[in-house]
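Practice problem: Tax1 (human T-cell leukemia virus type I) binding protein 1b
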Amino acid sequence: MALLLDRTLLSNNMDTSNFAHVIFQNVGKSYLPHAALECHYTLTQFIKPHPKDWVGIFKVGWSTARDYYTFLWSPLPENYVEGTAVNRTVVFQGYYVPNDDGEFYQFCYVTHKGEIRGASTPFQFRASSPTEDELLTVEDECNSDILVVTTKAGILEQKVEEVQREKDELLKNMALLQQEKEELEAEKESLQKACEQEKENCAQLRRENQEVQHSSQALLEEKEEVKRRLDEATARIIQLEEDLIGVTQKGIQKETELDSLKDRLKKLTAEKEVLESHLKNEKDEKELYKIHLKNRELENTKLSAELQMLKSVDVNKENAIAQFKEEVGRLQACLTEKDKQYKEILAKVSTLGDVKALKEQLRQKEEQLQANQQQSSLLAAELRDASSARDRTMSELYRIKLEADNLRQAKAETQAQCVRLECLVEQMKAEATQEAAKAEDEAAADPAVVAELQREVEDLKLRLHMAAEHYKEKYKECQRLQKQVLKLSEQQGELKRSSAQEMMAVPPSGSPDTSVPGSPGSADPMLEAIIQEKLKGISREASDRNDKYRKCKQMLMEEKERSCMFADELAKMEVKFKEQLKTNENLKLQLAAEEDRYKSQVAEKGRELKELKDTLVLVMKEKEKLEGELQKGSSRKGDQGTSEKTSLENLQSSVPLFLQYPVPYAQDTPTPLLVSQSPSKLHFGNPYSISDSKDDADEFSDDQPLRLPPVGPPSWDSNVVCIQPTRNHSRPEGHEESEEKQNNNVIFSLPCAVCSTSNLYHVCLIILMPFCVSPCLCCSLRVIPANSPQ
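Answer key — C-alpha cells:
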C-alpha cells in the first residue's frame, strides 16, 4: 500500500496539465480476467486527435510509453470540429487483458508522438466471489432429498443451453415444413396448369362447335343462294342475248372506227417522217455552221495576232528609219564640218605630206558617206515594203472582221431558227404521242395496226442506227480537218516569223574610222557615240524579237487550251449522244413489250369474239328447234298434259335436284347450270334414242333462252359434269302407266362446258324421269355429254 501511495505521489509530481487532456470515465476498481473490457474516455479541447493515437493498459509504476501491457488504436472521431470535446470508446478483448496477478493497472492515452496525455485511476484484475444474493438452492434432479447450492449464472447458463437445443429442434422442424410447403406449391402449379389446359380444351371445343354451326348456317345460306340463282337464270339469259346483239353492233362500229384510225395514223406517220427529215437537215446545217464559225474564229485570232506582230515590226522599223535619218543628218553635218576643217587645213598647211594625209582622210570620209547613203536607201526600201505589207494586212483584217460579223449574224439566225424548229418538233411530238395513245386505245382490237406500228418502229431503229454511223463519220472527218488546219497554221506562222526575221535583220556596216589604224578620225568621240547608239538599237531589236517570241508562244498555249476545251465539249456531246442512244434502246424495249401485250390482248379479244359468234349460232339453232318442238307439243291432248303435270309435281316435291360443286361457270356473274322450268311447258321423248339425239334433243320454253357457255375450261373432270345417286328401279305400288307415259322424261338441252377446250360446243342431255320402267334406266338427274356412247 505504501508503494502505491509512493507511486501516486510520484505521478502527482508530473505535469498535470498534460495528463488532464484526456479524461477516462467510469473506471471500476476491479475487472474480471479474460473478459471483454470497455474503456470510455473524453477527448478535451486541448488535444487534437490523430489516426496513430492509441490507448494502452499500463502497470502502475511505468516510466515510459513503452511499458504498456496491451494497447488499441484510438478511433478517429467523425465530423470532428476542432476545439470541442468528444467521447470515445475502445473494447479490449478478453484474451488481451492481464490475469489475476494482484497488480494494479491504469489506462493511458498516448499520442502519435509518444506523449502520454491522459491516465486513469488504478484498478485490478481478479475473479469475483459470489455473494449471498447470487447463490441459489436447487433440488437435485436424481434425488429430491438433496439440495444443491449454485449460482444464478449457472442456472441461467443451463437455461440458455436448453433454449438453444429447443431452437435447433425448431429450426429443423421449420426446414421440414418449408420443404413440404415447396412440394405443395409445385403440386399446386401442376394442378393449375392442368386446369388451364382443360380450360383451353373446353374453349377449343366451343370454337369448333361454333365453326360447325357457322358452316351449317353457311350451307343453308348457300342453298338459298342457289335457289335465288335458279330464279334469276331466265332473266340473265334474256339479258345475255340482248348484250350479244349489242356486242355485234359495237364490233361493226369499232371496225369502221379502226379503219378511220388507220388512215389517220398513216397521215400522222407521214407528217412525222417529214418533220424528222426536216429536223435532221436543220441539225446538219447547224453543225456545219458551228464548224465553219469555229474555223473562222480560229483564223480571226491568228490573223489578229499576226497583225499585232506586223504593227510592232512596223513601229520598230519606223523608229529605226528615224534614227537612221538623224544619223544621216549628223553625218552630213559632220561632213560639212570636216570639209571646212579640210579647207582650213589646206589653207594653213603647205607641205606635200600633209596634203596627202588630208586627201587620204577625205577619201575615207567619202567612202563612209557612200556607205551611209546605201544603208539609208536600203532602209527606205524596207520601209516601203513594210508599209505595203501593213496595208495588205489591214485590208485582210477588215475583210475577216466583216466575215466574222456575217458569221455571227448567221449563227444567231440559225440558233433562233433551231429554237423555233425544236419548239415545233416538241409540239408535233406531243401531238403525235397523244394521237398515238388515242390510236392505241381505239385500235386495241386490230392486229394490222400493231404490225404497221412494228414496221414503223423497225424503220425508225434503222434510221437511228444510220444517223449514228453518219455522225461518227462526220466526227472523224472533223478531227482530221482540225489537225490539217493546225498544221497549216503552224507552217504559215513559221513562214511569217522567218520573213519577219529576214526583214528585221540589218547588215552590220563596219566603221571606216576603225578600219584604218592610226587615222586622225579614229579617236573622234562623235563616231564612237554613233556606234554605241547602233549597238543599243540592235540590242533593242533583239529584246523586241524575244518579246514577240514569248507573246507568240503564249498565244500558241492559249490556242492549245482552247482546242482542249473544244475536245472536252466534244467528248461531253459524245457522252450525251450515248445516253440518248441508251434511252432510245429502253424506249424500244418498252415499246416492244407494249406491242406484245397489245398483240396478246387483241388475240384474246378475237378468240372471245369468235366464241361468242359460235355460241350465238348454236343458240339460234336451239331456239329454232325448241320453237318447232313446242308447236308440235301444243297439239297433244289435255288429259295427257294434266297427268304429266301431276306426276312431275309429285316427283319434284319428293325428289329435289342436287348439283355437285364447284360450279363450272364464272363466279363474278353467278349463273346456275340448270334452269327450273314449269312442268306444264316441258315435252318428252326417249333420251336413249340415237337417231333423235340431235334432232329431238332437250327442250326449253320459248321465253327461257339458253345460257352462254363459259370461256375457260371447267374446274373438274370433263367426263361427267354432275350426277345424283341412283334410286330404286322398281315401280311404286299402285301405279300403272301406259306405254306412252313410260317415256315421259324431261329432256333439257344445254351447251356442254366440259367440251369447250376443243372449241366445239356439244349438247349435253339432262334427263328427268318420274320413275324407271326397266332396270337399265335410272331415276336420277344426269348430265351426259353428247359424244357419250349412251
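Discussion: The chain has a mean pLDDT of 73. Students who identified this feature from the C-alpha cells alone can consider the problem solved.
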